Amino acid sequence: MFVLGNLVYALATILDYLLTILNWLIIIRALLSWVNPDPYNALVQFLYKTTEPILTPFRRIMPAYAMGVDFSPIFVLIAIWFTKLFLVRTLFGIAARIV
Questions:
Q1: pLDDT at residue 65 above 70?
Q2: N or C: at which end does the chain have fewer Cβ atoms within 10 angstroms?
């Protein structure tokens, strides 16, 4: 059973790292939106390509044109935070009980 516990622990750790990286990418993109970055820069294109699929569903729920401010990064960060608190901690708890 300890093998299954280690597998769940490893998956929880990888998910935690991925969510942390995504969290920072969203923050960097939000900060870049305050300045006018070069859209042809490779780093800017990477940020847009990795974060846009996550931001789009939240933009459909609350469009920016209604208020003039895009609140989707804030809601994405809250969703990431909730996922880390709920899912990752739950997976760590399951792994601890299996081992």
A1: no
A2: N
